[in-house]
Amino acid sequence: MNQDAHTSAPRAALPATPAVERLLARVRHRLTRLIWLSGLGTLVAAVAAALLLAFVADWTLHLPKGVRWFHLLLLLAVPTFFVLRDLWRPLTSRPDRAGIAVLIERAHPQLKELLVSAVQLAHSAHPAGEPARIAAVLGQADEAAGRLSIERVLDPRGPRLRFALGAGTAALCLLVMIGNPAAARIFFQRIAGGDTPWPQRTRLLVEIPSVGERELAPQAPADPDREIAVRVARGSDVPVVVRAVGVVPEDVVLHFAGGHELVLGASGGNTFRTLLRACQEDMDFYVTGGDDDDELPRVRLTVLQPPDVAGLAVSIEPPAYSGLAPRTEFDRDVEVLAGSKLVVRILPHPETATGVARLLPDDRVVPLTPAQFPPAPGSDEAKPAAPRACLGFELSAEKSLRYRIELKDDSGLTNPDPGLFGITVVEDRAPEVEILAPGRGDVDTVLTGLVALRARAEDDFGIVGVTWTTRAAADSASESTGPANELPWKLITPTASSEAESALPARNDAQKRGARVHAIARQTLEVAKLGGGEPVVEGQQFQLSVSATDNCAPTAHEGRSAPVRVRVVAADEFMRRLQDRLARAQASASALSELQREKNRRVLDLLAALESDALLQEGSSAEIASTVTGQRRVQGDARALARELASLAEAVLYSRIDERATPLLEMIDQALAQSEGRGFDPAPWKELATASRSGRLGASGLASKLVDIVGLALEISEEHATSAASALSAAQDTVDLAQVHAGLASAAGAQQMTLAKLDRLLEMLAEWDNFQSVLSLTRDILSGQKGLTERTRQYAKDQ
């Protein structure tokens, strides 16, 4: 019993520890406050987040009632869960005094369990140990508790952060709700089990506009917000315009009755457009987009058979001056002469349809009036059909145009794609005039000479007059244009050859319907009278042109030829230029002779090969073809040389330098006057050469020698060179060796004759050169003698 008194002290004898009690109370209070901060922050954050999520989901997605009930249960379950987990459980699990002392000891390890020991001793009924030591421990603990800080015991950052998170989430939720009070009110009504609908943010309006003048035929339903009925013509392009009112979605979708869908993107602003092309069958569709998914209004498109043009007839009455017969064209574009009267008739389907004609590019509208459709081509005239009623309009063809026939039936439908018809108006062209003679663009002559003017004129329908005019060239003393002089002319019927060699443009379809008019005009002009009453001097130049006037009414057209320059030179200058041209002709004849010799050697080689081998070697056909080509070249060069020599002879004859050549001039002038073609005709020159050689046209002279040279050149080109080319062509076309040999032999003989005639031609040209040299020397002597005589006379006068 005494031992017990020494080992345990009574509880009332222990000293009090107020500092420790205050420290423990402070820590416990702080712990409780942090639990409330953390729990309430977590609870508020979770509830606010769940409420905000449910609000946004229902507002944007318009959730059904089942989902809203789930959200309500979630809003009740979330706070219950977090109250139990973050408030009830932490508050009921707070540590006792010893546990709090342990927390303090962890923050202050230097106490070395002094505070824990003091708490245990102070609350122990029978503390073990000596009272003095126990009292000392309690005193030390109370003293130490007075100095301790609780800031390090509990970390308030986590609870404060959770509380701040909860406050922020709650504030955000309140801001969203307060900022959208109407939406918040609807949300709470719906979350509480109500069926209050959300206001529709997007409303789609469907429009079916008209297209230009082709209006649709709408049928107004009882409720246009629920159904739009439209009737259109088959083949029409139907535009669809969707306008979004309110929130504009990214795209809208057209849902067709067959399950097909068409997604439309915005075409600008709140408008979505598409075009249903060439509608052939009835359609039924609606539009959805954004939150407008009520499938209203529904568009019902009814496709009807549109009116159309069943037949077209264009009656054409050409102007009287053309002489063309009236005609009617069916179902095609037409080409008419300017000034024609046109009557356009169409057969509409159905017959009761009416309409207008739209003339393009003027965009002029002409009403269609009742008319009678003409009988179709090939119809039985013995049993004429009853006249058919139609629509038509009249116009005068002044310029090319296009026209559309726009029809409308009794129900208001129009033809969706009116055909485009054309009327091409062809102007009556001015006559086309070409000077056939002189054949050169520049002509040299002398004062005593003549100009043989021959021209050809062509017109679409008629020629009423041909004139010629002269105009002094720019480098002459006068540039005035002389008066128009009548040029005798006559109508001709062109031959196929003259048509083929004509260089005039091709005729168009309208002109082919009538006979094209051809005229030839000819007159021999005195060079001395080209000045139009003014004296003509050497060195003067004139531009000679021919004009023709057609019969076009009311205004006639005039066509003008390209001018021919006529230079008036002195006789000496004329002869020098003639000599230069003859020198060039001589050089051409020499080159032609060399070419003919080369081709002749080729033919002789082929003959030798054929006679030695008796068979054609491989490749001989190609060699014969080569000789044919070469001989044709000889023939062409020979004809060019003959034409040049004939031109020289013509220039000499019409210059009338040789007075003894008057019979030759009259003969060739009469022969050329009958020529109607554009090309060179060798026949008159052959006859002239034959007559000159016979001597029946008088004594020979300068011109007669030139005519003989021309005759020889024509024999070369038209007889021997042509015969050689024909023989070689015959040898090329046959496979019989005998015929090939005969053709080559004949060609070789003709080539030999050509060479002989070319040698003779070169001799005659050389003689002409010598003759001209003698004439030049004599002319120089006479000129010198004349000058000496003049000086002698002058000297005698001075003395």
Question: What do you see in this structure?
Answer:
The chain contains 16 helices and 29 strands. A hairpin with a 3-residue loop joins strand 14 (354-360) and strand 15 (364-367). The chain is 45% helix and 24% strand. The chain is α+β, with helices and mostly antiparallel strands and 799 residues long. The strands form five sheets. A nine-stranded mixed sheet has the order 1-4-7-6-5-8-9-3-2, with no helix packed on it. Strands 21, 23, 24, 27, 28 and 29 form a six-stranded mixed sheet that branches. The relative contact order is 0.06.
Summed up:
The protein is an alpha+beta fold and 799 residues long. 45% of the residues lie in helices and 24% in strands.
Cα radius of gyration in angstroms: 61 Å
Poorly predicted spans: 1-9, 211-222, 475-479, 499-513, 614-619
Count of β-strands = 29
Alpha-beta content class: alpha+beta
What tags apply to this protein structure?
799 residues; nine-stranded mixed beta sheet; 24% strand
Topology at a glance:
Layout: H1 2-7, H2 18-61, H3 65-92, H4 97-107, H5 114-122, H6 131-147, H7 157-179, H8 181-191, E1 202-207, E2 217-219, E3 227-233, E4 238-246, E5 251-256, E6 261-268, E7 271-276, E8 283-288, E9 298-304, E10 308-317, E11 327-330, E12 334-337, E13 341-349, E14 354-360, E15 364-367, E16 369-373, E17 388-396, E18 401-408, E19 420-426, E20 432-437, E21 442-445, E22 450-459, E23 463-472, E24 485-486, E25 489-492, H9 496-501, H10 509-512, E26 517-526, E27 541-550, E28 558-560, E29 564-568, H11 571-613, H12 620-655, H13 662-673, H14 683-694, H15 702-733, H16 737-798
Parallel strand pairs: 3-9, 12-19, 21-29
Antiparallel strand pairs: 1-4, 2-3, 4-7, 5-6, 5-8, 6-7, 8-9, 10-11, 10-13, 13-17, 14-15, 14-18, 16-17, 18-19, 20-22, 22-26, 23-24, 23-27, 25-26, 27-28, 27-29
Helix pairs in contact: 2-3, 2-6, 2-7, 4-5, 5-6, 11-12, 11-16, 12-15, 13-14, 14-15, 15-16
